[in-house]
Specification:
- ATP binds at residues 98, 138, 143-149, 173-176, 181, 204, 255-256.
- With 368 residues, the chain is of the alpha+beta class.
- It has three domains: 2-85, 3-Layer(aba) Sandwich (Rossmann fold); 114-174, 2-Layer Sandwich (Dna Ligase, domain 1), CATH 3.30.1490.20; 180-362, ATP-grasp fold, B domain (D-amino Acid Aminotransferase, Chain A, domain 1).
- Helices cover 28% and strands 26% of the residues.
- It is built from twelve helices and 17 strands.
- The protein has helices at 10-19, 55-60, 73-80, 89-95, 98-107, 121-131, 158-164, 221-234, 268-271, 276-284, 310-314, 344-354, and strands spanning 2-6, 25-29, 43-44, 63-66, 115-118, 135-139, 149-152, 170-174, 180-188, 194-196, 200-205, 208-214, 239-248, 251-258, 298-304, 319-323, 333-340.
- Strands 9, 10, 11, 12, 13, 14, 15, 16 and 17 form a nine-stranded antiparallel β-sheet that branches.
- It is globular and about 55 Å long.
- The protein starts with a strand and ends in a 14-residue tail after the last helix.
- Bound molecules: adenosine-5'-triphosphate (ATP) and magnesium ion (MG).
- Adenosine-5'-triphosphate binds at residues 113, 136, 138, 143-146, 149, 173, 175-176, 181, 204, 207, 209, 244, 255-256.
Length: 368
């Protein structure tokens, strides 16, 4: 099988790594000046629209997939007239715009935070009067890792934040006093075969994911799976998808949907029987999906801005280091570290010993 991946970041890199043992060949398209997937597969730097005239690439590909929400929906729609594209343009269109996403979730009965559509300062004033403070202004499109969103604490913030947001089409969301954040990763194949991973608890700092921890037997697992099934069936989704949730009063409230493999699923590489990357490829190639069983207590730590000494990190048994080949830069995800252990206690010992080496020192959440 030949897979053309639109987007050349670390998600593409890890898809390529998962593709190799399955005999799948990959090529990557990305207009950016650099691609950290380029070490592993041919990278074609071109404007998105140019893909449409690259007959060589399109004829080569058995299936086209994407790893970034910045791929234009119109490109996917145009490609899908003659090629197999998975997940579909519709999935990206619904989740790539926070307003459409909220409507989609609400229509299917998945609870979301109270929110309003914002096109002007007057809209923002009216919406904050209704939703109160704190609240979050988020661009409808193109935000990630906390970029393109602002927390508003008081009326005096409105004008300056509306300027900072460049007056772009946005939504305002009520601030949610969640007890924890979790995500569900699921993979679905055409025809309906669907597998879900154990719910994962996530901790963010300044809008950036810092660590993820799969939870065996979380009481909200069945509810999260029901939401994923409904969303995926509604658009005949093919591939891997992630839903981020806030947990409020022990109930799930969806924050956002990512129509792709997801950072909170990186632990699946060592922690699950089949990784989210392998299952994405199996789904888009229309092959049977693999078991999502959690193999052992696992914790994934993002490496943000810089990475620790390879030699010191790898001296810790149970530590699996993934570096993305990116230059260090503040706030940038340059790699991740997955810790796997025989028991929760051993996992925490690994973590405590590694902590002094890591760029930051926050404690993992939940029951350690
Ligand atoms: P990513 O791409 O990393 O998932 P993002 O830029 O798309 O992030 P969100 O997922 O919307 O942004 O928000 C990032 C984090 O900010 C959330 O995981 C949560 O911790 C916090 N946050 C966002 N919206 C709210 C809200 N309405 N109430 C409380 N906290 C929020
Ligand atoms: Mg998010």
């Amino acid at each position: 099988m030949n897979v053309l991946i639109l987007g050349g970041g670390q998600l593409a890199r890890m898809l390529i790594l998962a593709a190799a043992p399955l005999g799948i060949r990959c090529q990557v398209v990305d207009p950016a000046a650099e691609s950290c997937a380029a070490d592993l597969a041919p990278w074609h730097r071109m404007a998105w629209d140019e893909v449409l005239v690259r007959r060589d690439l399109l004829d080569w590909a058995d299936v086209i997939t994407y790893e970034s929400e910045s791929v234009p929906c119109a490109l996917l729609t145009a490609l899908a007239t003659q090629h197999k594209v998975a997940p579909s343009a519709e999935a990206l269109q619904l989740s790539g715009d926070r307003w459409h996403e909220k409507q989609w979730l609400s229509r299917l009965g998945v609870p979301v935070a109270p929110h309003r559509c914002i096109d002007s300062l007057a809209d923002l004033q009216a919406a904050t009067a209704e939703l109160g403070f704190p609240c979050f202004l988020k661009w409808r499109q193109q935000g990630y890792d906390g970029k393109g969103q602002w927390r508003l604490n008081a009326h005096s913030d409105l004008a300056s934040i509306w300027q900072a947001a460049q007056q772009r089409p946005s939504i305002l969301e009520a601030g949610i006093a969640f007890t924890r954040e979790v995500s569900l990763i699921a993979s679905r194949r055409a025809g309906g075969e669907l597998v879900c991973y154990p719910l994962t608890e996530n901790r963010h700092q300044q809008g950036i994911l810092i660590h993820s921890r799969p939870l065996a037997d979380d009481p909200l697992q069945a509810a999260a799976e029901a939401h994923a099934r409904r969303l995926m069936q509604a658009v005949d989704y093919v591939g891997t998808l992630a839903i981020e949730f806030f947990v409020v009063d022990e109930q799930l409230m969806a924050n956002e949907v990512a129509p792709r493999v997801h950072n909170s699923g990186h632990w699946t590489i060592e922690g699950a029987e089949t990784s989210q990357f392998a299952n994405h490829l199996r789904a888009i190639c229309d092959w049977p999906l693999g078991s999502t069983r959690l193999l052992a207590p696992t914790l994934m730590l993002n490496l943000i801005g810089q990475w620790p000494s390879e030699a010191l990190t790898l001296a810790e048994r149970g530590a699996h280091l993934h570096l993305y080949g990116k230059a260090p830069r503040p706030g940038r995800k340059v790699g991740h570290l997955t810790l796997r252990a025989r028991s929760e206690g051993e996992l925490m010992s690994h973590w405590l010993r590694l902590q002094p080496l890591l760029p930051r020192s926050e404690q993992p959440s939940s029951s350690e």
